[in-house]
């Protein structure tokens, strides 16, 4: 027995919303990893901040990020890393966190 104002069954709208949430790729998990990281083949994250390694889709967004997160450092557009660059030499390789290796 249910209480007052509680429907006994799910509505068609609620079921459709659950099906949509379960079957639509929202960009999370392994399915959206390429898109978030800006890999060579696809991905919206094209530029990477040289200070904190945050990614942005365009130079203007990177400039806004830099002014908000690193206000004491001057913004130099030539130091922003292009993740979609064709040569691997332009891209900085990630290091091991906490390591003193060079």
TrEMBL record:
Region (Disordered): 1-40
GO cellular component, one term: nucleus
Nucleus in keyword set: yes
Top-level lineage group: Eukaryota
InterPro entries: MBS1/2-like
SUPFAM superfamilies tied to this protein: Expressed protein At2g23090/F21P24.15 (SSF118359)
Alphabetically ordered keywords of this record: Cytoplasm, Nucleus
Ranges of Basic residues composition bias in the record: 1-11
Coiled coil: none
Intracellular or extracellular location(s): Cytoplasm; Nucleus
Protein name: Uncharacterized protein
Organism: Adiantum capillus-veneris (Maidenhair fern)
